[in-house]
Specification:
globular, mainly alpha, disordered C terminus, disordered N terminus, Growth Hormone, Chain: A, single chain
């Protein structure tokens, strides 16, 4: 008899909420790492005496391999042991973070961050698998709400926590702050996860697939970044299409395409992408405008934006309970609608930009995000066939991570194309709000045409 793999985690007599907590902790630190470094880029450039463009790769070096490896990681995790994968990924992630903190020159820092992004991709895929397989089916909505809530909380907390550490301890501390959480997660997983399966190296075909995805994402990001100066730079995105088509025809893309068709979750993944784009775009635009254009202090800006994660944290557990009682689809749809409403109300806010006025709108959107996160993830995971649960996890994590990565770039491009004054800002906010609105019908229509029920 073969050993259980990532989609065959054995059930204990009691629900393993400690493993759900591990999934939440890993979700928090993985998303925290996507944003906390951004605030330290200027200090990193000064510390190593390199250009701002070179220092930026301390952030991009993590994000690009993470996005590129999410789908290959899903296929790989469908065939290896969960315990070994969790311990290796968490340990590797922590060691790379320590190596980044101790880096003696910029090249070493970027190399450590790229390797950390590879381990981060495995963590992103493992989070929902751990949460879903650690509890009974009737409790999955509550379990999935834990990583789905803590992940975006980590993304929002990154700049605030990074600024505090930067002011008092220096930029190297931002790479060390995650180590206690990683250690706690590693020890809990080692004690609570049953021994099952083993690890194997990824196949060469999977690495080729990762290179194709990385090329497509890099072309898209470069086009959006340079289009701020001239719209013609958008032509740089052209190579993304053939690279994606080549990948879809390969052995790595075909199973993902087949899983989306079999599980009928293309609409759900598009909804996740749309909400992530809106979330990341709005936070980026507001922070930039309030500090640069309105001359608000970092503290005032941080406290205003903090209303979003606070409301999200309060609504997250409620979203999980509602999903278990009334269903994941209506709960996710209502949450997305509330988030979209909060973002829409930001678009015509006017020129006064009252901080309390922004705060309550963000709190409204945050409450919706809390209701939406866990149920949306539950919809995707419970729609997947057992043999492709890790592939389904990697697909939805790719959609979310790609949204978090593209959101600021799309918002900046929209702001630039709309003009440098308040009109451009409203164009950017309008694009983000429209993206959130798109998710509502996509979630509402899921299951109406014979898809698996959540």
């Amino acid at each position: 008899m073969s050993a259980p793999t990532a989609h065959e985690v054995p059930h204990a007599a009691a629900d393993r909420w400690s493993l759900v907590a591990v999934a939440g902790m890993l979700s928090f630190v993985a998303m925290l790492d996507m944003n906390i470094v951004n605030i330290a880029l200027a200090d990193i450039a000064d510390g190593f005496q390199v250009s701002a463009q070179t220092a930026q790769w301390a952030a991009l070096g993590y994000q690009l391999p993470l996005v590129a490896l999410l789908l290959p990681a899903g296929r790989w995790l469908d065939a290896v042991g969960t315990r070994a994968a969790v311990l290796t990924a968490v340990g590797g992630f922590a060691l790379c973070s320590a190596a980044a903190a101790a880096a003696p020159w910029a090249g070493a820092l970027i190399g450590a961050r790229m390797l950390q992004g590879a381990f981060g991709a495995v963590l992103f895929v493992l989070m929902p698998v751990l949460a879903m397989r650690s509890v009974r089916p009737e409790l999955r909505g509550r379990a999935m709400s834990v990583p789905a809530t803590l992940g975006p909380l980590g993304a929002v907390a990154g700049p605030a926590l990074g600024g505090l550490l930067l002011d008092h301890l220096g930029w190297r501390a931002i790479f060390l702050v995650k180590l206690p959480v990683c250690l706690a997660a590693w020890l809990t997983a080692r004690r609570r996860l049953p021994r099952s399966g083993s690890l194997s190296l990824p196949a060469r075909a999977e690495l080729t697939d990762a290179a194709l995805i990385a090329g497509a994402v890099a072309a898209l990001l470069l086009a959006l970044t340079f289009s701020v100066n001239a719209p013609l730079w958008l032509l740089l995105a052209a190579p993304a299409v053939p690279l994606a088509l080549v990948w879809l025809r390969r052995s790595g893309g075909r199973p993902v395409k087949a899983a989306l068709q079999e599980n009928r979750t293309a609409g759900l993944n598009t909804a996740v992408l749309a909400v992530a784009v809106a979330f990341a775009g709005v936070h980026y635009l507001l922070a930039l405008h309030l500090q640069r254009e309105e001359a608000r202090s970092a503290t005032a800006t941080g406290l205003t934006i903090l209303c979003f994660p606070l409301a999200m944290a309060l609504a997250g557990p409620l979203g999980g309970r509602l999903a278990d009682r009334v269903g994941a689809r209506p709960t996710a749809t209502a949450g997305a609608a509330l988030t979209a409403l909060g973002f829409v109300l930001l678009v015509p806010i006017g020129d006064s930009w009252s901080l309390p006025g922004i705060a309550w709108r963000l709190a409204l959107a945050g409450a919706g995000m809390g209701l939406y996160g866990g149920p949306a993830q539950t919809l995707v995971m419970t729609s997947a066939a057992p043999r492709s649960v890790a592939t389904a996890s990697s697909t939805v994590q790719l959609a979310r991570s790609l949204g978090f990565t593209l959101g600021p770039a799309l918002a900046t491009a929209a702001w630039s194309l709309g003009g440098s004054d308040a009109g451009g800002l409203h164009v950017g906010l309008g694009l983000a709000a429209a993206s959130a609105c798109l998710a509502v019908p996509l979630l509402a229509l899921h299951g109406r045409t014979g898809t698996r029920a959540a």
